[in-house]
Amino acid sequence: MTPAARLQAAIELLDRIETEAPAADWIMRDYFRKRRYAGSGDRRAVGQIVFTVLRQRGLIDWRLAQVNLLNDNRLRTFLSVLLESNPTGLPIEPTAHGPVPPTAEETAALEHARTLDAAEAPLPDRAGFPSHLLADLTETYGPELEQELRAQTQDVAAVDIRVNSRKSDRDAVLARLQADGIGATATGWTECAIRLSGRPNLDAHPLMQDGTIEIQDAGSQLVAALVGVEPGQQVADFCAGAGGKTLAMGARMENRGELHALDVDVRRLERLRTRATRAGLRNVQSRRIDPEGDLPEELVGRMDWVLVDAPCSGSGTWRRQPEQRWRLDPARLEQHQLRQIQIAARAARLLQPGGLLIYVTCSILRAENEIVITELLRQLPHLVRVDCREAAQNAGVLLPEDAVTEVGETRLSPYCHGVDGFFAAVLRNDIR
């Protein structure tokens, strides 16, 4: 592909990402799957442009607005190239495979936009998040908001893996990875977390294929470990999805007791069954539940633990999916919140007296975290908050002290903890 054709591909991809629901990396794979002529260098160069625009879009749009240019993906791409990789000019010539070149007026305006002082931009534009989230995020992070959000929106997330304790231990896996030339170090707050150097492709690695390791962020591993499951217990993963946290809990249960993986999506549950078999877990029972219908009667009131990994905005994973921040408008955020309250209230019906529910999101927003818990406690007064430090101690987990809020809930962040943004709250069914 010519430089101009790469720019055109980036523009087309940004247009699709802006209007379609799938994740940006899926859209890119689909785009290049239909364009076999694009080599690995082309895909890498186009991907760099696309993700730079997505990560820097707030500041790019501010610059364009200051020089009275439209905030469209053609001009965003041009300005991104000027800012990031080619400050001496745009590699554009009139061609059937490239974008419409900038006019003389656009060229002058883009050059002016490039020279603007980013420090003069409003905080949401500098830090790269929608302005309607400012009040919510300020209440959480206060004066550290900008550095927190810069880490959320501009840092590149590391690759973490979880060692399946049913098959091996961390020291043995570290030795094997290092022998295979894969840089890896112990990380996180559990005995199973490893952080890789770079982004090696592990799909064909024997440890991945036999279920000894799974890719899972160290923060996700920590909140799953807060569920202090024990062998022989009755446990439900209410929004199991493809089962990352299900597998983490299952490894602790030693195939004793029952682990019920519940979800509304049959395809995700099918992937979970495959992963559970590979991991050597025989006590996982997956079941589709209706989003609005009755819960399985034989599970109601029987669970020792219920994990609610609630569907959310994914704002804690903006490092991995920068497009998600620009898709989150106030109406969608309100829909998430209402759904989260409904899901958590339904899941609470599964608890036996004294049973524990852990509510988890990969969100950094109070609207999906503290506010949901406050409303849940109002609607269901038999639930009481349990300090996460108590849950961590019971589970044998090391919890960072700065990750615990004043009321005993857990917050993890890329800036403070080097992991995705997570929230966790533990509630007990106090009916005796």
CATH topology of the largest domain: Rossmann fold
Strand pairing plus helix content: what structural class? alpha/beta
Helix content: 40-55%
**Shape, per Cα inertia axes:** globular
**Quaternary state of the chains:** single chain
CATH class of the largest domain reads: Alpha Beta
Largest sheet: 8 strands, mixed
Helix and strand string, N-terminal first? HHHHHHHHEHEEHEHEHEHEEHHEHEHEHE
Strand content: 5-15%
Instruction: Determine the mean pLDDT.
Output: 94
Extract low-pLDDT stretches: none
The number of helices is 18
The rounded distance between the terminal residues' Cα atoms is 69 Å
Written account of the structure:
The protein is about 45% helix and about 15% strand. It is of the alpha/beta class and about 425 residues long. The chain folds into 2 domains: about 5-120, N-utilizing Substance Protein B Homolog, Chain A, CATH 1.10.940; about 220-430, Rossmann fold (3-Layer(aba) Sandwich), CATH 3.40.50. Strands 5, 6, 7, 8, 9, 10, 11 and 12 form an 8-stranded mixed sheet that branches. A 4-stranded antiparallel sheet has the order 2-3-1-4. The chain is globular and about 75 Å long. The relative contact order is 0.10.
Mind sketching the topology for me?
Elements: H1 3-19, H2 24-33, H3 40-66, H4 73-84, H5 104-115, H6 123-127, H7 134-141, H8 145-154, E1 159-163, H9 170-179, E2 184-186, E3 193-196, H10 206-209, E4 213-215, H11 218-225, E5 234-237, H12 244-253, E6 258-263, H13 266-279, E7 284-288, E8 303-309, H14 323-327, H15 330-348, E9 351-361, H16 370-379, E10 383-386, H17 388-395, E11 410-412, H18 414-417, E12 422-429
Parallel strand pairs: 5-6, 5-8, 6-7, 8-9
Antiparallel strand pairs: 1-3, 1-4, 2-3, 9-12, 10-12, 11-12
Helix pairs in contact: 1-3, 1-4, 3-4, 4-5, 11-12, 12-13, 15-16
